[in-house]
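We store sequence with structure; for instance:
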Amino acid sequence: MDQDSSLFDQAIARYQAGAAPEDLIDDFLTITAQSPRQSAGWTCLAWLQLLLDQPRLALQSARTAVRLNPQDPQARINLSLALLETGGKGVREHVELVQKVMVMAPDLAEELRGSMADGLQRRPGWGALQKLHGWLQG
């Protein structure tokens, strides 16, 4: 296993163990600097930036993640959230793509629901995520 993926795996494990976003953000800044073409690193960085109420930074990170991997529904969710929080346009196309993925891949849909629940737990009252969650449930 190369060093980049082990740092990524360690950071993900720490997040899943409940580490605070502010304790992980530097790891993901390092990961994206070392592996700028790895979409998963950008997706995670955008999520942490959203949790830390940094929507403009998250918008840049999420756009990079979607550009690198347009099929990743979590990257699309992050981009939708960043667009909602910055007043950007184009949310509907991302939401519709995620809805299609959720219908076609129930396992992935469950993972995405878990991610959204995690986000609401870590950032209570997150209006953009509550709105997006409602659209994806409907």
